[in-house]
Design goal:
Helices cover about 40% and strands about 25% of the residues. About 35% of the residues are buried.
Length: about 950
């Protein structure tokens, strides 16, 4: 009986031993499972967010591609239509732009459906396939469309981008870009690791799938897929798991609408690629826990009979520890054998677990504090406290990446040593911090002296000889780094567990910093929205008002009026400061009888002196008792004055001063508004001064450039130049006449892009360059080709010159010519009243290097008149209608009986009447004919004045 009781007791002890081991293992397994599950959820959400960003980037890039193609088509269509290109010239023009896009061809299609010109010679003259594009969708404000995915005539897959070319309200033609859908990856140069991206049209057909760009056409119909239906309805679609139609794989990702064309784009990655690493780690952990549990069972069953009291005590204490009581001391069990060693080991584990849980709890508490923070300093302070408390940190620094400057800058630095690295910066990839930013992986530096640490000299001098640098990762990447120094690194480094805790803390800090930034941006936006809408409206009106003219007198009056209106002042004045004379010239206005002050007063009189010396605004609401008060103002009862400087950078133009004779006082907001007006006014004054100076120089230069000879042997000729407006008289239109060997005459007419001094200097460059090469080459095409090489290297980016260069032989009536992007000359036969236009030319000078220009030859009779002109004549408008070549033809016929000398003026008057005397561009016109053999050509004084433009 006693033996059985003993056996029964032994079985109970074995069960207790087993339970005590399980009480230890189960919480650890549970913690591991929860930890891995949390990582899985976070990983899954990060991947989904990244796929959504990829989808949005693909959508934005595709929308940009369509808009880029539409803009190119619109420019091509306008150029072909307005310049009346021949079929060959138009096709060559289209071919030049084809290489920059993933297209089969660019086609110019007439309204009747005929392909007039194409970058693919095989398509010229064919009829466009009406089934691929519905032109009825054009109009009502929409001048372009994109066709659904279809099979191209060459058997390849693609879609068409169609842009209308309009003649008033009528569709004159269309430009079609046939896009090769299988080559879109040539445009989307980025790669999507671990998955692909797709583009689907508004019919649910797959346009492009990066992993299967040549997917058969019959497998591209996705319109029944839920994610396609959702995005074509205008909503984003995200999924943690779905069957992907290309390969029936289980994927997660996002699909978003492409707003501009009504299509959609998406990116999906196989789910097992995301979760497999986490599940593998979880399985390994569970296997290890299972092995430990099994060993515990075997050990408990085998040793139960020998360790009744010790194991019972150990089990009891284990239960207490499992319940979270880490104060239980397990080291008191003394058996002299493995049980005692087990108790000591268990106690060590208890201490380690206590420290780990304490650190984890501290990290959680720090994370909670950071998540509640609304500013970055609070976040960094919480991180510093956690690192000091749980890791013994003696120095902590935060460096944030600034996208605009492309720099990593140390913005927060704490140390209990004599060291401060705040403000230090480095480029991405530079030093240890720069590499951590780029790789998003932590780095432990055990020896700063031999490392790439950027500021190791300062750190070593302060006693910091090691460091840990961790990335601050939020959303799609690293926003900066956090670094710390702790003596633990020198004492054997940091354990993997500690590194994991540090990374968790860094990740929490990154999220909290991003939240703080978002809050600060939101707060600033709210403050801006709360600003006075009326003040913003008035300031906007003031800015527009002051920038609307180029007349100085008018501008100064506007500035004073706006300043008074803005702060409800009774008197306003503006003083322009002459720094050399030390005096101010005033102009003023008031709602009361005029204030009698001299036009010019010394700069040291009144509040002006304070503002001129300090360059800061000054205001007083007790003007009567102010020692700087002016007696004339006191006589009028002025009681409040505000004065602000007119500054652009360091340049002081003068002051704005407003005054009140009522009970009105000037508050801080009034001064702020006046300062804003002062800044706008100073810029406007500077612009007008610069404009007037530049205009004077340019007018002198242009008058010199527009001079013409009194006579041209063998020719009668007339000239006329008209600027678009009186205030902007200096344009880029010009003409020139060159004496050549054998009695030949070179005639040049051109148009430089832009206005003012820049246009005038470009005109001088063009005239001198063409003159130089005209004496070296007999062909006008060679002259333009050589001139283009020089002009392209000398002119600013984006500037160009259109030119017609004609070499005339008055003795025979024959001439050769070449055209660089200039409107074609017109020839009038005065006997038959017939008008014809010369050939179109090639690219303007200065636009593209290496252009070869074509030479044309022609001849005229005595009854013919050649008319050269700039595009301002063609583009005279009346309610959207252009004067155009038809207007020029009719005007030439109407003045056929007029002397050649007077024809340019008559033609220009006809264009001005057509446009209600509102020409939008400068115009230069040259007319010439062969001289009658009897009297030599001699211009009257009146004709000479007409040809010399001032």
């Amino acid at each position: 009986m006693g033996i059985r009781n003993t056996l029964d007791n032994n079985k109970g002890i074995k069960r207790k031993l087993l339970l005590s081991y399980l009480a230890i293992i189960i919480p650890l397994v549970a913690i591991s499972i929860v930890s891995y599950y949390g990582r899985y959820i976070e990983r899954r959400q990060d991947v989904l967010s990244a796929r959504l960003v990829v989808a949005q980037v693909v959508a934005a890039n595709f929308d940009h591609l369509i808009k880029d193609v539409v803009a190119t088509e619109r420019a091509l269509g306008i150029a072909i239509e307005e310049n009346n290109y021949s079929r060959r010239a138009a096709s060559n023009y289209l071919s030049r732009v084809t290489g920059g896009y993933p297209v089969f061809s660019f086609d110019y299609v007439k309204a009747n459906g005929e392909i007039f010109a194409s970058s693919d010679p095989k398509l010229v003259g064919r009829k466009m396939n009406p089934g691929s594009v519905n032109l009825n969708d054009l109009g009502d404000g929409k001048d372009w469309l994109v066709s659904p995915m279809h099979l191209h005539e060459n058997g390849e897959m693609g879609f068409d981008v169609v842009t209308g070319v309009w003649d008033g309200p009528e569709l004159a033609a269309i430009v079609v870009a046939s896009v090769d859908a299988t080559k879109l990856d040539q445009y989307f140069t980025f790669k999507v690791p671990g998955g692909g991206y797709n583009i689907v049209d508004n019919k649910g057909m797959v346009v492009f799938q990066s992993q299967n760009p040549k997917l058969p056409f019959d497998r591209r119909d996705w319109k029944s897929q839920e994610f396609i239906m959702t995005t074509l309805a205008g909503r984003e679609y995200t999924s943690y798991g779905m069957v992907f139609p290309v390969d029936d794989s289980f994927r997660m990702g996002a699909q978003v609408p492409i707003e501009g064309v009504g299509w959609s784009a998406g990116s999906f990655v196989p789910v097992d690629q995301v979760i497999s690493p986490i599940f593998d780690a979880l399985l390994r952990g569970l296997l290890l826990a299972s092995i430990i549990a099994l060993l515990a069972v075997i050990l408990g069953l085998g040793l139960g009979g020998r360790i009744v009291r010790p194991i019972t005590s150990l089990a009891e204490k284990a239960r207490l520890i499992a319940g979270g009581d880490f104060s239980v001391d397990v080291s008191g069990i003394k058996t002299g054998d493995e049980i005692e060693e087990l108790a000591l080991s268990f106690n060590s584990m208890r201490l380690s677990l206590r420290d780990y849980v304490g650190e984890l709890k501290g990290i959680v508490e720090a994370g909670e504090k950071m998540n509640l923070a609304l500013n970055i300093p609070f976040v960094t302070h919480a991180v510093v406290n956690a690192l000091r408390s749980y890791f013994g940190a003696e120095a902590v620094w935060f460096a944030f990446y600034h996208e605009a400057e492309k720099k990593l800058v140390i913005e927060h630095f704490w140390s209990d040593k004599d060291l401060d690295l705040t403000g230090g910066s480095m480029a991405p990839g530079e030093g240890i911090a720069g590499k951590v930013l780029m790789t998003a992986k932590p780095v432990i530096t055990r020896d700063l002296a031999s490392s790439e640490f950027k500021f190791k000299k300062e750190a070593l001098e302060a006693g910091l000889d090691a460091a840990i640098t961790l990335p601050l990762i939020s959303g799609g990447g690293a926003i900066g780094v956090v670094g710390l120094y702790t003596p633990q690194i020198r004492m054997g480094g940091m354990t993997e567990k500690q590194i994991s805790l540090l990374m968790a803390l860094a990740n929490q800090a990154a999220v909290a910093i991003e939240n703080a930034r978002l809050y600060e941006e939101t707060r600033k936006s709210e403050l801006m929205l709360r600003a006075s809408n009326e003040d913003l409206r008035i300031l906007n009106r003031v800015a527009l008002d002051m920038s609307s003219g180029l007349d100085m007198e008018e501008l100064l009056d506007k500035i004073i009026k706006n300043a008074m209106d803005l702060v409800a002042a009774d008197i306003g004045s503006l003083g322009l400061y002459d720094e050399e004379q030390g005096k101010i010239s005033y102009r003023y206005r008031s709602s009361i009888p005029e204030l009698h002050v001299p036009d010019v007063i010394p700069a040291d009189l009144g509040l002006s002196a304070t503002v001129l010396n300090s360059r800061m605004p000054v205001a007083t609401n007790d003007y009567r008792n102010d020692p700087r008060a002016v007696k004339e103002a006191l006589a009028l009862g002025v009681n409040a004055v505000a004065t602000v400087p007119l500054l652009v950078g360091e340049h002081l133009f003068g002051i704005i001063q407003v005054a009140s004779i009522s009970e009105k006082v000037f508050v801080d907001s009034d001064t702020v508004l006046l300062e804003a007006v002062g800044r706008q006014a100073a810029v406007a004054i500077e612009n007008v001064m610069l404009y007037e100076k530049e205009r004077d120089i340019a007018e002198v230069l242009q008058n010199a450039l527009l001079s013409a000879p009194e006579e041209l042997p063998g020719l009668r000729f007339g000239l006329k130049y008209r600027a678009a407006t009186e205030k902007a008289r200096v344009g880029g239109d010009f003409y020139d006449f060159i004496d050549l060997p054998d009695g030949k005459i070179g005639i040049v007419i051109g148009d430089v892009s832009g206005k003012g001094l820049q246009a005038a200097t470009a005109t001088a460059l063009a005239k001198m360059t063409i003159r130089a090469f005209a004496h070296e080459h007999d062909s006008p095409a060679d002259v333009l080709a050589h001139a283009n090489s020089v002009i392209k290297s000398q002119m600013t980016h984006g500037q160009f010159i259109t030119i017609t260069y004609l070499i005339m032989n008055p003795a025979t009536g024959r001439f050769s010519y070449a055209i660089a992007g200039h409107p074609p000359a017109a020839i009038l036969n005065r006997t038959t009243s017939n008008v014809r236009f010369l050939e179109l030319g090639s690219t303007p000078l200065g636009a593209v290097d290496g252009i070869i220009y074509e030479r044309f030859d022609d001849e005229i009779a005595v009854d013919d008149v050649v008319l050269l002109y700039t595009d301002g004549l063609l583009e005279a408008r009346n309610n959207g209608r252009l004067f155009g070549e038809s207007g020029i033809s009719n005007a030439l016929i109407d003045v056929a009986d007029t002397d050649v000398v007077d024809m340019p003026s008559a033609i220009l008057e006809a264009a001005a009447r057509f446009a209600d005397d509102k020409l939008n561009d400068d115009v230069a016109v040259v007319a010439f004919s062969l001289a009658e053999p009897e009297p030599a050509f001699s211009a009257s004084a009146e004709d000479v004045d007409d040809r010399t433009v001032s």
